[in-house]
Amino acid sequence: MSFPEGFLWGGALAANQCEGAYLEDGKGLCVPDMILGGDQNTPRTICKIIQEGKFYPSHEAIDFYHHYKEDIKLFSEMGFKILRLSINWGRIYPHGDDLEPNEAGLQFYENVFDECLKYGIQPMVTLSHYEMPWHLVEKYQGFYSREVIDFFIKYAKTCFQRYQHKVKYWLTFNEINAGTMGDPLASLMGLGYMTKEDLQREQPCSFDELKDNPQQRYTALHHQLVASALAVIEGHRINKNLMIGNMISHITWYPHTCHPQDILAWQQKDALFNDFCADVQIRGEYPNYMIAYLKNHQIDLSYILETDLDILKKGTIDFYTMSYYISNCVSADPHAEHIGGNLVGGVKNPYLKASEWGWQIDPLGLKYTLKAVASRYPHIPIMIVENGFGAVDKIEKDGSIHDDYRIEYFRAHIQAMSEAIDEGVPLIGYTSWGPIDIVSAGTGQFYKRYGFIYVDRNDDGTGDLSRYKKDSFTWYKKVIETNGEEI
Ligand code: BGP
């Protein structure tokens, strides 16, 4: 086993999925606060008017806002070296376009970071993990409006200035490439984008009913890429020692067969989904294949200004990070068997098993992916900032939770990481997703759990929020203690 000295083991959370306290201490409403929870039979719905008496998972979540000391202590017990958290934009600028930041929000994160540092855990910050203030969605259609770039930069600068001596690793946007897919949930969460017509709706509607406008969506994504590059420039101007990265939702794609048509379909999918945003952020320019794709799809590119090209060139990132959960196949055959249940779709791989949500489990795919990323971008380090297994856990009468399926998932993925390192991949850290049970982003459920720590919280809003250690807790502690020698 070959994890380097000082390898950054830890976990990753998003503010909106754990904090709760959705209107406390001056926080404004954010995108997830407007999305109702679903369950196994009902999809999530959205409405611009909060529905009294209905269950919104982000409003209380697992109340990390009031439990952070207890939770960070548990993370330190596992030996975490790093904790990836997001700052909720709406705690700092409640409406997004406010003139002054909200001191109570700034102080909250200062306290959280101090608590981490007390245990030798370094905090790592995502500036925007699906947490755009709702006011920016309603008034500006999120990043579709160029003005939102300035609001984001003001927010980013406030955070860099305040926390530069406590936080070294920063990510601008979570899964910035999510907006390339045209899925309305991903567009809203990632870009804060909805069409004008859909924003008029006064009744809750499911995401399937929302419209996609590719011209507006690609405009919004471009503005987000410019905002990200500008944030890198500003962050480095404030403190040149900050390490500022991107964050890619990496779905590993395979051609379904070796038919040349499948190979071409796979190549295109991989380029558009995985490579495009990373190429812009690392190489500092739009790749030719993307310009061609947009033109071929009648997208008017006049939203790309000359000055933007300069910003993209200068604002390249310091390290590559990704989430990795699954792999899927691509087929040119429209009749190939598709997988249901996840946002990105894809064709079934007969060699892989899937979780209850259709997420295909592929540890070797992680090795392949790490090697592919390292050879595409050979000059920067890599960190996996999300990876984990969403499953239904059963709590026994004595409070124990036997989650060997989760241990099995992690064991195989950590093994794959170590093999990739042996083959030359410059991997510097690993933050598992949801080290404590939190709200699921895609389904809004508590039923889908990721944690090493169980939280007594259910989809009907019941549960007293007590924390319990699962079997995986002790297992991950050992992994960290032995620097990946014992898995
Ligand atoms: C990623 C998001 C996370 C997270 C994770 C698991 O896409 O960055 O916020 O939730 O996926 O997805 P889910 O919660 O839908 O199971």
Give helix % range: 25-40%
Strand order of the largest sheet: 8-6-5-4-1-12-11-10-9
Topology pattern, helix = H, strand = E: EHEEHHEHHEHHEHHEHEEHHHEHEHEEEH
**Which term fits the overall shape?**
globular
Tally the structural domains: 1
Strand element count: 14
N- to C-terminal distance: 10 Å
Strand content: 5-15%
Q: For the record, what CATH class applies?
A: Alpha Beta
Which structural class best describes the helix and strand composition?
A: alpha/beta
Q: How many whole angstroms does the radius of gyration measure?
A: 21 Å
Q: What is the residue-averaged pLDDT? A: 96
CATH architecture: Alpha-Beta Barrel
Spans of at least 5 consecutive residues with low confidence? none
Ligand identities? 6-O-phosphono-beta-D-galactopyranose
**CATH homologous superfamily placement:** Glycosidases
